[in-house]
Amino acid sequence: MVAKKMRYPVEFIEDAVRLTRSSDRPLRQMARELGVNPETLRSWVNKAKQAEVEQPEDLAVPEEVRALRKRVAELEQDNDILRKAAAYFALVPG
């Protein structure tokens, strides 16, 4: 008899890996508590480790954040100017 392959939601897998890594309990115990096969959980943890090694932190992200913060500051300044102009024109008799 072939065991049926189960599909787990990505969120469940991520939570299970995070919980397993942060716990001091043995992997087998964690698997039992989560209701998954220990080898399945081991595979998830190993894949997460592999992904961290293959994809080091993206160095472009901080540059993108700086650019976005600059753009937000410019847009806030534009909004401030428009607010002042609207207030001025609301007071000017027309």
Automatic annotation (TrEMBL):
Protein name, as recorded: Transposase
Cross-referenced Gene3D superfamilies: Homeodomain-like (1.10.10.60)
SUPFAM superfamilies per the UniProt record, alphabetical: Homeodomain-like
Entry GO MF terms: DNA binding; transposase activity
GO biological process per UniProt: DNA transposition
InterPro entries for this protein: Homeodomain-like_sf, RD_transcriptional_regulator, Transposase_8
Pfam families: HTH_Tnp_1
